[in-house]
Each structure stands twice: as structure tokens, then as C-alpha cells.
């Protein structure tokens, strides 16, 4: 099947490439309709990764958060026109211990493999899930990001000790917001405390118990466990503040992506017997849990609507650049592309 793939070939340069894609009997062909930009996409588009990383990853189509309509599937698997979410992580092996999103052999759309900026996306049937009608297109577009939060909170449930009275979330952006929202849904009695750098962003965290500017953290309660949802230049100070604020034997879930190694006060990690674990991406089980959360807690969708930032109609490569530039300027929230390529 001939298909047009919009690949980033160098920073800020996207080219349409005609490719002949084989469609297997178990595959599903999805026509993307709504795509959502992640910080990871911006790092490639703006050229903010090392030259080595850029050379390794490009050329590739960006975007790993998206939904679409089924254009073709084997009989009875999906209905033509059915609205579905696309799963970017594609495992090529199974493992009894290591989850699919941590297997080094897994192929991730938008990181070394073409992402969803395509005319049509061909995926194995297991990488496509039908969406409930209750979720708007714009919110559904970033279901992958919500699944990442569900994955991280699920791992917290598996790893953290049982005293979970007060949990701190560092980061007042998209990831901090969604992780806090998932914690609220899964642990309704938990005291959730959010630490951020922007009062106007913290004001949106109406569903948590307390918010603090990082400069006021001395007035915050000690916490049992923490999530670091900052990354970049903010990661070191967030992790340092978490280590200072957390009680002994607490867990620290690291979620922020940093291009450079982050210094950690290991002496205090030892002294407090802390547990640090990383969470990245998500698997099919996390998407299924996310859609179940949407069904069990309909209020989640309305909170997530507040994250929808700019919605951009995209019908040309110039429109793609405009959407990425709008995203780079955004004060907060998710940038959605209505995909008409
Ligand atoms: N693990 C995974 O699978 C995933 C990881 N990520 C990563 O998570 C990180 C956050 O993403 P996202 O929420 O979209 O980014 P945003 O930029 O929307 O949010 C980050 C927020 O954290 C604030 N911040 C920075 N430093 C600190 C600090 N020390 N304490 C408290 N808040 C701080 C920033 O404030 P200010 O801007 O004022 O500095 C900003 O408001 C990124 O690195 C992203 O790549 C994203 C998706 C999935
Ligand atoms: O955003 C993410 C998942 O939603 C991950 O941070 C992203 O996939 C990491 O990929 P890369 O190593 O290419 O930056
Ligand atoms: Zn992402």
C-alpha cells in the first residue's frame, strides 16, 4: 500500500516521503485524525538532543500520542470508521519479568521508528484499541500520556511500602497534573501535595489537597513517597527537594526526561534507605486501565479538558511547523493537531 509519511529529516525540516507499506492479515490501517505533541517530539523538532542522538533517530515521523478512524482491518476485528487510539509501543518479543515498554527490542513509534504523522498508520491489531464515545477527540488524542501516568502509578502500587498517607508530586505541568489526577482516582483518601514553580499553573490543581511553590516547600508536610514529573533543567532541584522532604524508606518515581546526567545526593538516599525507580512509556495493559478509569471516573475527562491548549488544523507541512511553534510558546497544556494530511 502506498502511504505518505511526514518525516523530520533535520531540526524543523519535515519532508513527505512516499513509502510502500506491507499490510498483513493481522494488521489494522488507521487514518489519524487527532495528534498531540509531547515534549519528546519537541526535543527532536527543535534539535534539542545531542548530535549523536539526532543522527541515530532521524529521519523519522514524529508523534506518539494520537487517535484515528479505522480505514481497514480483517473482518470483524474493527468496524470501518471506528474511532480508536493508537499504541506507540510495539513489542516484538514477550518476557515474564520485563514489561513490554522496557524491553530493549520493543519498537516505539516516534523514537527510532516512524510515529503517527502519516497519511495512514499500519499497526498490529494489538496496538489499536476502540475508544469510548464519552471522551472528546481532543482529550482522547493524549490518551498515551494518561496511560504513562497510569503505568507510573501502577508501578508505585507494586513497589512502594504500604504507608501511603501523603504523596508529593513535583511538576506543575502536563505530567504532574495527570499523575496527580490518576493518584486522586486510584487513592481517593491519599493526601496529595503538589510542588511547582508557577502559581497560575498550581491553581488548576483543584483536585489535590495542597500545593506549594518550590520556594515555600519548607512549609510543606513531610511525605511518604514522591513522583518527579519535571525533567530537563528542573530535575536536579526537584530530586534534591524530594530527598530532603521524604520520610525514610520512601519511594521516588522518576518520570522527567533529562538530556544530561542529573546529580543525586546519594549519601542521603543511603541514610534514609530510599527507593528510586524510573517509569517510561506504557504498554497495552496501561491503555486498557486508562480507558477503564475513564469509564469508572467520568470526571477525569472534564479535568483533562482543562489541559487541552491550542487545537490546530493541519493540512500542510507549514501547518505542522506552526503547531510545533505554538506548542513551544504555550504557557501550559497540550497542543492538538487536527490531522488532515
Ligand atoms: N516518563 C515518561 O514516559 C514521560 C516523560 N515525560 C517527561 O516529563 C517531563 C515533564 O513533561 P511535561 O509535564 O509535559 O512538561 P511541562 O514543561 O509541561 O511541565 C514541567 C513543569 O515542571 C515545572 N518544574 C520545573 N522544575 C521544577 C521543580 N524543580 N519543582 C517543581 N516543578 C518544576 C516547570 O516549571 P517551569 O517551566 O517554570 O520551569 C513546568 O511547569 C518532561 O521531561 C517530559 O519529557 C513526558 C511524557 C512521558
Ligand atoms: O514521551 C515519552 C513517552 O510518552 C518518552 O519520554 C519518550 O518516548 C522518550 O523517547 P526518546 O528517548 O526518543 O526521547
Ligand atoms: Zn510522550
TrEMBL record:
Function text: Catalyzes the NADPH dependent reduction of D-ribulose 5-phosphate to D-ribitol 5-phosphate.
Top EC class, one word: oxidoreductase
Binding-site residues for Zn(2+), renumbered to this chain: 38, 64-65, 144
Keyword flag Oxidoreductase: yes
Keywords, alphabetical: Metal-binding, NADP, Oxidoreductase, Zinc
Positions of the Alcohol dehydrogenase-like N-terminal domain: 24-133
Pfam families on file: ADH_N
Similarity comment: Belongs to the zinc-containing alcohol dehydrogenase family.
The keyword Oxidoreductase is annotated on this UniProt entry: yes
HAMAP family: TarJ (MF_02069)
Documented EC number(s): 1.1.1.405
Signal peptide location: none
Cofactor(s) needed for function: Zn(2+)
Organism: Denitrobacterium detoxificans
Reaction catalyzed: D-ribitol 5-phosphate + NADP(+) = D-ribulose 5-phosphate + NADPH + H(+)
Name of the protein described by the UniProt record: Ribulose-5-phosphate reductase
GO molecular function: ribitol-5-phosphate 2-dehydrogenase [NAD(P)+] activity; zinc ion binding
Amino acid at each position: 500500500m502506498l502511504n505518505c509519511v511526514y518525516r523530520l529529516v533535520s531540526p524543523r525540516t519535515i519532508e513527505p516521503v512516499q513509502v510502500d507499506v506491507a499490510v498483513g492479515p493481522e494488521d489494522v490501517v488507521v487514518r489519524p485524525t487527532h495528534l498531540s505533541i509531547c515534549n519528546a517530539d519537541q526535543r527532536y523538532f527543535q534539535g534539542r538532543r545531542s548530535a549523536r542522538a539526532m543522527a541515530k533517530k532521524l529521519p523519522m515521523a514524529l508523534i506518539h500520542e494520537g487517535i484515528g478512524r479505522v480505514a481497514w482491518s480483517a473482518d470483524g476485528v474493527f468496524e470501518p470508521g471506528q474511532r480508536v487510539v493508537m499504541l506507540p509501543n510495539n513489542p516484538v518479543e514477550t518476557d515474564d519479568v520485563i514489561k513490554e515498554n522496557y524491553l530493549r527490542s520493543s519498537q516505539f513509534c516516534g523514537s527510532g521508528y516512524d510515529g503517527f504523522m502519516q497519511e495512514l498508520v499500519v499497526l498490529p491489531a494489538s496496538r489499536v484499541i476502540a475508544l469510548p464515545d464519552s471522551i472528546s477527540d481532543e482529550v482522547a488524542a493524549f490518551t498515551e500520556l494518561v496511560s504513562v501516568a497510569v503505568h507510573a502509578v501502577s508501578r508505585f502500587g507494586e513497589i512502594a511500602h504500604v504507608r501511603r498517607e501523603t504523596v508529593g508530586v513535583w511538576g506543575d505541568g502536563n505530567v504532574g497534573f495527570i499523575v496527580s489526577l490518576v493518584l486522586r482516582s486510584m487513592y481517593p483518601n491519599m493526601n496529595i501535595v503538589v510542588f511547582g514553580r508557577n502559581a497560575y499553573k498550581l491553581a488548576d490543581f483543584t483536585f489535590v489537597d495542597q500545593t506549594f511553590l518550590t520556594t515555600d516547600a519548607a512549609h510543606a508536610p513531610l511525605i511518604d513517597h514522591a513522583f518527579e514529573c519535571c525533567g530537563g533543567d528542573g530535575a536536579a532541584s526537584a530530586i534534591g527537594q524530594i530527598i530532603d522532604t521524604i520520610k525514610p524508606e520512601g519511594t521516588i518515581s522518576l518520570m522527567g526526561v533529562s538530556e544530561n546526567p542529573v546529580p543525586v545526593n546519594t549519601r542521603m538516599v543511603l541514610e534514609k534507605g530510599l527507593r528510586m525507580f524510573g517509569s517510561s512509556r506504557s504498554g497495552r495493559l496501561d491503555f486498557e486501565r486508562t480507558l477503564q478509569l475513564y469509564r469508572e471516573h467520568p470526571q477525569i475527562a472534564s479535568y483533562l479538558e482543562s489541559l487541552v491548549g491550542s487545537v490546530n488544523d493541519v493540512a500542510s507541512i507549514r501547518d505542522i511547523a506552526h503547531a510545533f511553534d505554538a506548542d513551544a510558546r504555550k504557557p501550559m497544556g497540550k497542543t492538538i493537531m487536527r490531522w488532515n494530511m
